[in-house]
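Lab meeting, item 3. Inverse folding demo.
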């Protein structure tokens, strides 16, 4: 390298904020973390949901959360920190009450995702990866959420907001800021990012069946097939390839 240091392509990935030692983790949280670990044949497989539970309690991956996870799983704090700083869903700094995600991958970008992200940065007064000073909103550029048939999409606390426009995005932020009831276009009523993190960790909130499971574009092919009486071929009626018949 001729004396030159390797330059990271992810200069803002950062690390855990060790200066902030505050935590809300108590005996109940530790009990629930242990419960998650007990669900897996190999306890360390529970680390990802355990970290989501830590976020639901502390609003970020806290130093105390790392220590407790390491202790329960019998691994080092460095191993826990390595996982926590690898995945972008884990936050190094406190997240807002509502996490706003804007997809700018491929089709969403073509359909206006970059415009939506710029609109949200202007509306919220923050940039990608930041949280508003009052702690109400966090904003992230997110990768493909497998919703190309509804592009461009946004998410609020990981719930889908489909076919978004800049105007509707502004209205959505105003409704959330005012504490109004907001529903996902294909999901449940919006609660908070921390509550959503608890569900992701593996503690259902009983609202999984709220809202439609799929939108019209996702089931259009199925509906057309039903109207025409189309169906998949019977596997038993498909002739075997010649090489199979000769065996």
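The presenter then showed the designed sequence:
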């Amino acid at each position: 390298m001729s004396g030159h240091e390797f330059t990271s392509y992810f200069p803002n990935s950062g690390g855990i904020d060790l200066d902030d030692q505050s935590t809300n983790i108590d005996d109940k949280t530790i009990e629930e973390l242990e419960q998650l670990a007990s669900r897996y044949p190999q306890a360390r497989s529970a680390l990802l949901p355990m970290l989501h539970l830590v976020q639901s309690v502390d609003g970020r991956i806290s130093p105390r959360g790392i220590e407790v996870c390491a202790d329960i799983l019998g691994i080092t704090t460095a191993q826990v920190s390595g996982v926590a700083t690898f995945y972008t869903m884990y936050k190094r700094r406190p997240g807002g009450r509502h996490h706003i995600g804007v997809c700018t991958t491929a089709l969403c970008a073509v359909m206006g995702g970059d415009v939506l992200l710029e609109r949200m940065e202007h509306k919220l007064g923050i940039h990608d990866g930041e949280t508003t000073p009052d702690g109400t909103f966090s904003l992230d550029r997110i990768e493909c959420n497998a919703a190309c048939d509804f592009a461009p999409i946004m998410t609020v606390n990981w719930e889908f907001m489909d076919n978004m426009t800049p105007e509707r995005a502004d209205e959505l932020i105003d409704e959330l800021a005012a504490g109004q009831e907001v529903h996902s276009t294909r999901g449940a009523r919006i609660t908070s990012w921390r509550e959503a993190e608890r569900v992701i960790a593996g503690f259902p909130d009983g609202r999984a069946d709220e809202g439609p499971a799929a939108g019209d574009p996702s089931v259009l092919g199925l509906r057309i097939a039903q109207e025409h009486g189309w169906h998949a071929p019977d596997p038993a009626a498909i002739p075997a390839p010649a090489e199979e018949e000769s065996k």
